[in-house]
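HUMAN: Quick job: go over this next protein and say how the chain folds.
***
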Amino acid sequence: MSSTIVFEEAAQMQRVCGANDRNIPYLELLLGCELYVHGNSLTCEFSEDREEQGSKVFTRLIHRLKNLALTMEVITEPEIFMEFQALGSEEGSPSNKQEIEPATSIPVAGKSVYPKSMRQRQFMRLMRERQIVFSIGPAGTGKTFLAVAHSLSEILAGRKQKIILTRPVVEAGESLGFLPGDLAQKIGPYLRPLYDAMEFLVPPAIIKRLEENGSIEIAPLAYMRGRSLNNACVILDEAQNTTIEQMKMFLTRISENSIAIITGDVTQIDLPKSKLSGLVHAYRILKDVPGIGFVEFLSSDVVRSRIVQRIIDAYDKEIASS
């Protein structure tokens, strides 16, 4: 069956189709159709059972473009796939159906960060509404990136005084030996993913200035004992490698005017087998505590790339069969 999708302007269509129409083959594969470009319209040849689904996906993509109106970003394959999955989730859960509404965004230094999945949207909402938020899930789901984006937005807008970055110093299966330098230089390599996210959002010069005036602080988790963390966004990354005692100590440092964002992947625990992860334990005993929010990402929420999603699924199948 044939249908035509008309865009308000050719530039809008180009952002859906991607640079040099690179998204066209992916859209055809995903939606089971053939696409033909004519000016500012797309002619879609669907099989009879895919027309409604395909039209809804394009409606969602056009709506996403309107939310991105202030930027020149093009729609990417992960974003197309997330809209496709979100549509399937809503159709499969009648009680969870919702109208397509403007996406929540995080403003950071003139940019806007938008959710690429329903669970990312949930995570962003929880960071606004709860004082302590746990984000649990596999690599590539945007846990650390969104935590950093929210925290930067809070201090650049003056709502919080500083960002505190911390993580347990546990090596992932190999010994790095002695690390030279002062405390910041020693723990810096462990916090590199957080800095990668910050550098994607703001220029390095701004990050350096925030460090110099104390608005960004890095600290090993062990150095948190005895502190009271005031008016801050505190990010605990790689929380699956905390012990129960470390997690309790960290959570009890948070004052009323601070927010704690805890991220981790329970499939990548590097603790000795005799020790229970503090993240696993916290989920078990805190999931119903008022003021604390949990969001659980799945492999289907991976936005880093499709190959990462496939790798995670393959490992999950191997673990399930063993």
Q: What stands out?
A: The first strand starts at residue 2 and ends at 6.
